[in-house]
Protein 1
Amino acid sequence: MTVTAKARTLGELLQTPEYAGRTPFDGRVRLVQDEVRENLTRKLRAGEELFPGVVGYDDTVIPQLVNALLARQNFILLGLRGQAKSRILRAITELLDPEVPVIAGADMPDDPLNPVGAEGRHLLEAHGLELPIRWLPRAERYVEKLATPDVTVADLVGDVDPIKAARLGTSLGDVRSMHFGLLPRANRGIFAVNELADLAPKVQVALFNILQEGDVQIKGYPIRLELDVMLVFSANPEDYTARGKIVTPLKDRIGSEIRTHYPTDVGLGMAITEQEAVRDPSVTVPPFMAELIEEIAFQAREDGRVDKLSGVSQRLPISLMEVAAANAERRSLTGGDAPVVRVSDVYAGLPAITGKMELEYEGELKGADNVARDVIRKAAGAVYARRYGSANTRELEKWFENGNVFRFPQGGDSREALQATQEVPGLTDLAAEVAASADDAVRASAAEFVLEGLYGRKKLSRAEELYAAPEPETRQQRGGRWN
């Protein structure tokens, strides 16, 4: 809806083309769900992007979400942490009109022509066509609440305000004596509850009662509020058993339960991380390093020592990318080298990994740092195998098997690091192939990646930055059925 000149009173509003022929209390109500459906329909016909910034859900979550919105349903997004649930809920505001008229001076946003609140009806009857109105932008029509066990019915719905009742001369049971909570203040908009299962059961009951029957009891007084609100939720499946439970009547009243998920392939994950990670633009992240950082999350999700019910958030590779880039920048500032992310920078980002993983008993015994290092090793081996598994590294491996060791230079100039790698047969040539760049800093990063990849495939062993031949038992496994 587009209003060319913003009306300031109900009379001026009725003179606009969109409201021509309307009268107060005419019963012609355009609900929020209808508004969202109309704008969604227009976007679908025009081929516009529905949810900018939401990556990887085009064939799974978004079609189900579109169906729920077209069906005018309330819905819940059910998924593990770090699966863009909150981003999706906030993006629905883009399906609202740019702005809508509401009664000015009322405690809750109300339709100037068909108010649902007692205060709004009283103001309309008192002022008539001179009723002052204001324009509510879409950003202010979204109200979000993070559910916690201490949230009360008063927080969401409201509470009796004795002072207000005395000032208005009404009884405590009169709806005009209420101090409204978040839900009534979201009237004519979207009300989102994150982590729904953490709400106390009595609060959940108040939610479905006010939505379905339009009434709720506040301190024994029956209060009727026929709100125009789209209610959307998010929850973690773990919450059903670990911290709380969604009460059955409320779950039954939620139209659609939509399951979210982590990126299904590394490429989608890389796109999300590149979009979300905040880093200095001067820092270069070679493609093989970006893939390694993303693969770490994929390996962690498959690791038996990591709790799968808790999940491994997409925030892990995002945070790791930021910390690794920061470490590369620090190395550049202190050593004068070009800021290019290396494997050593990923190891410097261990704090961004350990805090994102909930460990099982076996993992707790081994320690978070050791599990994270092992996950990095597996990820390096997986990326190397995908990209360069067919490369001939026999000469390089034989050099290490002859008892030689190599410590990759962690500081100094990249050219010096590349000169040092010439000591290892074939490493310089393979690094040039991996880097696909003439930049010395990128080639140095590629050389360290090659060594780490061979370590991940158990063709080398590693102690800090020192690479050597694989341990005898590992060498025996490679020669046997584990090769």
Protein 2
Amino acid sequence: MADAPLVLGIETSCDETGVGIVRGHTLLANTIASSMDEHARFGGVVPEVASRAHLEAMTPTVEAALAQAGLRFSDIDAVAVTAGPGLAGALLVGVAAAKAYALGLGVPLYGVNHLAAHVAVDQLEHGPLPKPCIAMLVSGGHSSLLLVPDVAKDVISLGSTVDDAAGEAFDKVARVLGLPFPGGPHIDRAAAAGSGTAVSFPRGKIDDGTLDFSFSGLKTAVARWVEAREAAGESIHVPDVAASFQEAVVDVLTRKALQACRKYDVHDLLIGGGVAANSRLRALAQERCDAAGVRLRVPRPGLCTDNGAMVAALGSDLVAAGISPSALEIPADSSLPITTVHV
């Protein structure tokens, strides 16, 4: 892949300013500036704060990526950027910056789908994707099951959350348990000292015949359980509650993912998105995939959370597939559907 173009990727869909550089499926740089600490005191991401943080971080993050890769601006052959879905103001910062870099460098621009990029990034670690594969994307904003014949051209939605996404439920349950934001990593750590069978929490839509998800009822069940014990003056063992909640989430996720594999006769499962960094999800998915004869691919945790490398990876796929570049007039689309890989 030495002759493959160098692609600069920019990601600003939420609270991380991510910039990555790839050549083909070789990762050369992946730099991230997070505004998470600025949101923590509010217990969630504040869109206006995120947008301002992206503005301040964009130039130094791009320069840091170039330095990490040992490159100059003149070496870049194409620019890719997350055009959606995500927070409208945050997306706008990234899209505007990418247009400026593409125009200034005289290179093509590729507006890409954030969710498809979470699929494409695995290639930077494990090589080309099997065609087709099933992808399960789990994050603070999305819980989706996808059939992916070709990540550059064809992504088909099989199911999604009907209410709270898995990562959103982690954040809300963490708040109930008095754990910091973002909730996912803190629940994962707390659960390590608890029992996943200590409390029997509900599994939403587990056997409803669809490939959709629901975590709002589970979140409410945890809150009501905690409230009842507190009202009764009982102590709450946070690790047990965290582990039992986590077990309910990953049980549903892995069951639905393997249902999709069986239904579509696909033997390769990819898990991506921020929640894919969860240790119990990774372990249970591997256990159940091994039993079902399904090959599992999960990127390392640093590539699961939002990053510029994933955007560059999908941009590189689009270039390799001969897809026409985006127009400089492309919008930032906060509700871009997963079936639209490239805008």
